[in-house]
Amino acid sequence: MRTLTVLGATGSVGASTLDLIRRNRDEWRVLALTAHSNTAELARLAREFGAELAVVANEAQLPALREALAGSGVEAAGGPAALVEAAARGADVTLAAIVGCAGLAPTMAAIEQGGVIALANKEALVSAGDVMTAAVERHGATLLPVDSEHNAIFQCLAGNDSAHVRWITLTASGGPFRDWSWERLCAATPAEAVRHPNWDMGAKISVDSATMFNKGLELIEAHHLFPVGLDRLRIIVHPQSVVHSMVEYRDGSTLAQLGPSDMRVPIASALAWPERMDTPCTPLDLAEIGELTFRRPDEERFPATRLAREAAMAGGAIPAVLNAANEIAVAAFLAGQISFTRIAAQVEDVLGSYAPPPPGCLSDVLEVDTEARARARVLMTSA
Ligand code: NAD
Ligand code: MG
User: Pathway listed for it (predicted)?
Assistant: First the structure.
């Protein structure tokens, strides 16, 4: 029996994770589940899985959570510090599935316990970068990528020396707007942006997928996860989302991981690692799919990958600035305050106005994140 904590249990990745646990109840014991404010769903999950602890990040919701858990024996807690405490209970496996830099502090707390961290929360790694990878090293934790591309690369690297890698190629679906003209992009609505053709995901990552910031964040994520230089990381657009990423070796061999567009596959790979487990996912039927196509990304219409590459090259705190500016811009777009194409423009403006020194610890990263958000808001109101 292994213990599991799910940070962000009520989200899309959280639900996929708990669906797998539901099918393997005798192998897992759930320690803690967390959510932002959906107390009804959190309480339902905590009862179903017999969790020890349920944490709602929005402290105002704690009375509602307590009420929903009355008589269940599940402990209830609220607020950001309680999130960190949940992560610090030291589960064997922590599924980090909070969206945004809000997941950073609890993810770091889980790392400090030295267990397995199955990481979906890419914004945390993008923001903290070396601070996080150094903590992983220091505490003997194991960081397993859940992001489908990185999980694919992790699988393609297994048993090979990364010194022999010529290219790591991240595939990108291109999102719902991949064939849209610039004029059409300027008028794209939030409802159109969250309607992803291949994946069913939370709103923020769906918008990131439409702007290609998702791939930009993933480029930075890959740079921290895998020991190859940025000059050996590239992106290719692959609309069918069947090839989840590839690794090309110096002898000309390319290894790819293929699978259905279902997050339960990479989540299962991380949960069972180094073993394998069954999933209920529809098996890949390549004859039915018929065609796999690939093309180069267009950085004119989608500047996000260029901005992310530049931020990764600058290193230090700059990726945290990029991430924070993007989080604010995406929230503003979803709230109808800025246009779709303003997202990247606004991120570029913030990057041009704020270049803090490299962070040395978690609180430095959080400070950069807070300041970059404040600047993004100011730039937005003055634009
Ligand atoms: P989601 O919006 O569906 O769920 C996010 C979860 O985080 C929810 O449980 C929510 O309650 C919680 N949360 C949100 N804000 C919070 C805050 N401020 N404090 C504490 N908890 C908070 O998001 P998702 O699509 O499941 O994505 C989660 C993470 O996984 C993101 O970083 C995303 O980039 C990554 N990811 C998602 C997918 C996918 O298919 N959905 C694929 C790859 C990577
Ligand atoms: Mg991904």
Answer: Isoprenoid biosynthesis; isopentenyl diphosphate biosynthesis via DXP pathway; isopentenyl diphosphate from 1-deoxy-D-xylulose 5-phosphate: step 1/6
